[in-house]
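WARN no homologs supplied; continuing
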Amino acid sequence: MPRVLFVCTQNRLRSPTAEQVFSQWSGVECASSGVHSSADVPLDRELLEWAELIFVMERAHRNKMARQFRAHLKGKRVICLGIPDDYEFMDPALVRLLELKVAPHLRALGGTPPGPAQW
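OK structure emitted
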């Protein structure tokens, strides 16, 4: 099962929202973290080694991650979503934006969204 990591600054709004939304999908495992040392779940070597696909919310997150963990990013696919820090946790607009930008990548990995029961 593909392991997907979502990264933002403090791991309080955007990346935990993404983790919550996409942990409902079958066929993928999700986690989230933040690049700031005071993040609720600070990004570390173990999380990067665990992840197969990494989504960052902003370019600054990718840059900071690359500076701090360059050796642990070899062979990792990092996708910048371009989502600014303008949303609250589980904001419906943030959820829609995440679904629009992330879902195609997860589908390509074999992930499937939750849906109505098939009869």
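The mean pLDDT is 94.
OK
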